[in-house]
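Q: A reviewer asked whether we had any structural model of the full assembly, not just the individual parts. We don't, so I'm hoping you can provide one. Inputs are below.
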Amino acid sequence: MHSEPAGASPRDERAEQLRANLAVVRGRIKDACVAAERSATTVRLIVVTKFWPAGDVRRLAALGVRDVGESRDQEAAGKAAACADLPLRWHFVGQLQANKARSVARYAHMVHSVDRLTLVAALSRGALAADRDVDALVQVNLDPTEPAVIGPKRGGVAEAEVPKLADAIAGAPGLRLGGVMAVAPRTMPAAGAFDRLAEIGARLRLNHPGADVMSAGMSADLEAAIAAGATHVRVGTAILGVRASLG
Ligand SMILES: *Cc1c(COP(=O)(O)O)cnc(C)c1O
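A: Here is a predicted structure for the entire assembly that you could use as a starting point for your response.
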C-alpha cells in the first residue's frame, strides 16, 4: 500500500498556512524587540500546539520551530511520543495536578505553571524517577480579583508566596528554578501587569541570580510582554488558528 505522510505531500496547504502565520508572528516579535531596543535573540517563541494534532507539530518543526507548548498531560504525552524523533523542547504551560506531575516530568523540558508546594515535590519525584532535569517557573497570579472573575481560573500564586515557592523549587532535586510566568489578567491592561511580573522576577534574582526566565505574552499581547522584558512568549492562536474548544 502506498501512503505518504501529509507533511511530505507536494501541496500541503496546512503547512503553507502555518508558514505564513509563523512569519507574521516572527515579524511581530522582531518589531517588538526593535521597539524595546532588545536583541531578537533574547526572546524565545514557544508555539502552543494544544488541541492541534501531532502532524501540525511536525510541520512546525520543519519550519524551524524548536519549542512547543501544551496544557494537558494526556494530549502532550501522546504528541511528545509521536514526535520523539524531532529536535523539540516541550513546555508545559497549563494548570497541573500533582497526580500528573510524574508523567509531565518524563517529557517536559520546562514547566511554566508551578503554583503549589505539593506540585514542587511531585515534579521533583517525577524528574528523579525519569532521571531528567526539569526547569520550573513560578506562575504568578497578577489579578487580586481573580476569585470573582467568571471563566476558567488562570492559576498562579499570590505575589507574597513567590519567594517560598521559588526556594522550594531551587532546593528540589531534579528541578531547576527558571524564573516566573504569568497570564495577563482580564481585569487590567496587559502592559501594567507584565511590568509587575518583571519586577517580581527582578526581586527573585536577588536570591536566585540564574532565574532569568520571564514567560509572558500570548497571541493578543506579546508586544506588551516583550516591552516589559519577556524572555519566552507563548503563542497559539496567531499561528495555528482558533481552537475548537476553550483551553
Ligand atoms: C493557550 C495558552 C497560550 C496560548 O494562547 P493564544 O492566545 O492561543 O496565543 C499561552 N499560555 C497559556 C498558559 C495557555 O494556556
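A: Points you may want to mention in the reply: The CA atoms of residues 27 and 191 lie 20 Å apart. The pocket of pyridoxal-5'-phosphate is lined by residues 48, 50, 71, 93-94, 183, 218-220, 234-238 (CB under 6 Å).
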